[in-house]
Write a structure and sequence with these properties.
With about 120 residues, this protein is mostly helical. It contains 7 helices and no strands. It has helices at about 5-10, 10-30, 40-55, 65-70, 80-95, 100-110, 115.
Amino acid sequence: MTLSIFDRYGGFATIRRVVSAFYDKVLDSDVIAHHFEEVEMRRLIDHQARFVSAVTGGPASYSDDHLRRVHARLGITTEEFREMVALLEETLEDFDFELPDVQTVVAEIRRREGVIVSRL
């Protein structure tokens, strides 16, 4: 039996640390930090850790409809989405995720671009 990415890297505890480090980068980004000025980061990190857990094969799920509803009012651009993906990729590499696993996670996030980006 093959272990999921989620399980191979230590489950929710590791994913939570990855997401927390990711948001440190996000908040330093000139491109996307403005989206988080009025956001309760602890709550967002918890939600995002569940989402990243889901895309790594962990015990959570988010439908595309849910993602579309949550992001629709945010006016996220393609440039901002790509910045977010690049920062996540960098963070996964910082945590020594193997390249094929990084590529899998990034592909799963990119697959959702159409439901997250709401402004061209």
